[in-house]
Amino acid sequence: MDKFLSVKRIEFDNETIDTSSSASQLQVEKKISKLFELFCSKAECDPDAPILNRENHLSYIRNHMFTIPQNYECLDSSRPWLCYWLCQSLALLNYELSLEEKSNFINFLSKCQHENGGFSGGPNQMPHLAPTYAAVCALCLIGTDDAYKVINRKKLFSFLSSLRTPNGSFRMHKYGECDVRSIYCAITVARLTNIYSDGLFDGSAQWVIRCQTYEGGFGGVPGVEAHGGYTFCGFSALLLLNAINMCDTKALLRWIVNKQMSFEGGFQGRTNKLVDGCYSFWQVAIFPVLTEMLKSEENQKLWTLYDYKALQEYVLICCQNKYSGGLIDKPGKPPDVYHTCYVLSGLSVSQHAKKNGFCIVGKPENILNENNSVYNIEVTCLEKALHYFNNTPPINQ
Question: Rounded to an integer, what distance in angstroms lies between the CA atom of residue 128 and that of residue 131?
Fold first, then answer.
């Protein structure tokens, strides 16, 4: 099997101590081993394998654009997220939305903008930082003047200001919780729409760095376990706050490289947890910036710091639904638009891990459009949006 895979796979050793988590790990490895064996048997006569089933994924995404299954009912208060996940996936796959599709997205997102600023999870709902981030990112991905003009920048600034707490953290909504997500969402939309001010984020970096744990990753709030999603939010927030020097990068590197699974090739989100396709983005997105930082500190050339080939093999061999399209968490799970977005986003980051060259597993047609690993927006869409908003008049603060 190793002949057709990039690295030797090291199976989990429970050291004769059976636990429920070790049993789950062995079960996942068994499923993945079968997929690897099937892939290797096919690779003997197909040198282009593994293949990104691009057309199947495009079909899956487009089928979910305006009609979604009943099991998505739980996301009624997260509908801008659906718009974002779909638009980001399509942009990475180099699909150009039609004028009608753009108009439909824009009209819906405009109805989600709250009269007091920010965006809600759906029309007539309360404004919330998470769907605000998703809506702003989706409108940037759509990339037309009509999309950009939906955003009421003055009211957005007022909305962000209303959620700021005296210690520099942000609430997710009025009377809501404060965590690393909220600061990341706030600083991201502020940077994207050119409404950032030092006063608005006074103390925010100091609050974020309190969330870096003894492990090296970041927890959601100070004093809790490090987690891949929160680590992305904390690290990226510090970067956007121009305070990345506050981060213990060596400890972070030690933590994050150990999150890549030695058999699967994908990443787990926390210590002693199972592999999950979405961490192909949440964990891997940190490496490009971290690599550049450490390269500068060490004054020497560094590579990607993780095994990008093993990651891509996990995604391409184990995370594609070959029947309906879409991407998944792990073998045995159904596809969904969340995992489709973040698995593709991480795959893109790993494919573009080297400057002046691609890191592609499989044939060249597998290459996705480049993704910005801080904003998680396809690069050309991001550059166009930043150019537009950086030429807008400043908000009177």
Answer: 6
Check 9, 137, 318, 329 and give the catalytic one: 329
Given the residues 64, 185, 336, 381, the one annotated as active site = 336
Which position among 64, 128, 164, 227 bears the catalytic label?
227
The residue with greater pLDDT, 159 or 45, is 159
Distance between CA atoms of residues 255 and 267, nearest Å: 12
339 catalytic per annotation: yes
Q: Residue 116 has which token pair?
A: 């007091």
pTM for this prediction: 0.96
**How far apart are the C-alpha atoms of 48 and 43, rounded to whole Å?**
8
User: pLDDT of 99-152, one tens digit each?
Assistant: 999 999 999 999 999 999 999 999 999 999 999 999 999 999 999 999 999 999
Catalytic site includes residue 329? yes
Whether 34 is catalytic: no
CA-nearest of 214, 308, 310 to 262 is 310
Please tell me the predicted confidence (pLDDT) of residue 322: 85
Among this protein's residues, is 314 annotated catalytic?
no
The residue among 313, 393, 390 whose CA lies nearest residue 347 is 313
